[in-house]
Amino acid sequence: MANYVVKRLLAVVPILFGVSIVIFLFLQLVPGDVAATLLGPRATAESIAAIRAELGLDKPLHEQYVQWLFAILQGDMGRSIILQVPVVDIVVPKFFNTLILAAASLLIAIVVGVPVGVLSAVHQYSWLDRIGTVGAVLGAATPTFWLALVLMYVFALNLGWFPTSGMYDLRGDGGLLDLLHHLVLPSIATAAIPLAVITRLARSSTLEVIRSDYITAVRAKGMSERVVVWRHALRNALPPIISITGLQAGFLLGGTLFTEVIFTWPGIGLQLYEAILGRDVPLVQGAMLFIAFFFVLLNLVADIIVAYLNPKLRAR
User: Fold this and answer.
1) Fewer CB near the last or first residue (10 Å), C or N of the chain?
2) 48: phi > 0 → left, psi -120 to 50 → alpha, else beta; which?
3) In a domain, 13, yes or no
4) pLDDT band at 239, cuts 50/70/90?
5) N-term to C-term CA, the chain
6) pLDDT of 35 above 70
7) What backbone phi and psi angles, to 5 degrees, belong to 20?
């Protein structure tokens, strides 16, 4: 088990290195000049050249990348061009807000998706299975931004049950209940796709397990169907469910962008959207790298949990 964990940790290094290259080149290859955008249409060639020199944009790409990478390794993500503050001071609190939304969405996806998937497998081809399957297909096919707009129109604008924007009410006390009240609609909209994916995988994984000889032997011992399904079958069906949950958790960190923009949720997705519009390259690079790092970290944790549950991997 220890060797497996060390190997997975070592594999993270080249992955993050490759991600850093992709992020850097992706933004450098975007058409347009950052300096000209910042100074406006009336900027002179001399002022544009001065800004490019100040930002280091006049250097070759490989020198810019090495300089940026060494700064990142020292914890310096640069300084926001628009806001004129360190990128770290912006990204960290915004990421925490996104983490709250992503965690709530993932909790909904797991709490609803796993039981529905397991019950659909146990009652295959029943009305419950058909409803769960259709619901999963619709959830996977429904665009997040469209669902967010529908939820806002019905439950916020028409019924007035929930707020339309923000994380806290400006007139409220900013407590937990206020946060939960603002969290309901964004988390439901964001959870739709992960919920569909987890439901479908839980169903297929449970179907495979309950048809195995192991479960037949457990049933032959006279155990109740409830114990067979929820204690024995679910445990053996968990590894692929945990793996896909890790992927969906990583997806939620960046997939909340549409929800954050629509509900004006003050997370890293909304900040990234505004930084892209303003061509704030250091802030965009820092935010994307931060999301990528935690995406890899969450999948690493999921792989370690799967290895712990799998005796073959645990013995390595």
Assistant:
1) C
2) alpha
3) no
4) confident
5) 5
6) no
7) -65, -40
Cβ count within 10 A of residue 170: 6
Which string of DSSP letters, residue by residue, matches 156-209?
A: IIIS--S-SS-SS-TTS---HHHHHHHHHHHHHHHHHHHHHHHHHHHHHHHHHH
Say if 4 falls within a structural domain: no
Backbone angles phi, psi at 246, to 5 degrees: -60, -40
Which 8-state DSSP code applies to residue 56? T
Residue where a domain terminates, one of 76, 110, 135: 76
Q: Are 288 and 304 in contact (CB under 8 A)?
A: no
Same domain? For 70 and 97 the reply is no
pLDDT, position 305:
76
User: For the segment 84-103, what is each residue's pLDDT rounded down to a tens digit?
Assistant: 788 888 888 888 888 899 88
> Could you identify the residue written with the tokens 């929930």?
162
The amino acid that residue 232 corresponds to is H
Distance CA 97, CA 186 (A): 12
Which residues neighbour 250 within 8 Å (Cβ) at sequence distance 6 or greater?
A: 294, 295, 296, 298, 299
Q: What does the chain come to in residues? A: 316
Half-sphere exposure of 273 (CA within 13 A, CB side): 16
Closest among 203, 227, 216, 210 to 125, alpha carbons compared:
203
Q: Given a cut of 70, is residue 24 above it in pLDDT?
A: yes
Provide Rg for the chain, Cα atoms: 24
What's the number of domains the chain is made of? 2
Helix ranges, the chain (H): 2-28, 34-39, 45-55, 61-73, 87-122, 127-141, 144-151, 176-210, 213-220, 225-227, 234-255, 257-263, 268-277, 281-309, 311-314
Residues 250 and 111 in one domain: yes
For residues 120 and 123, give the distance between their C-alpha atoms in angstroms, rounded to a whole number: 5
Decide: residue 127, CB within 10 A, 0-12 exposed, 13-18 middle, 19+ buried.
exposed
- For residues 209 and 302, membership in a common domain is answered with yes
> What's at 190, amino acid-wise?
T
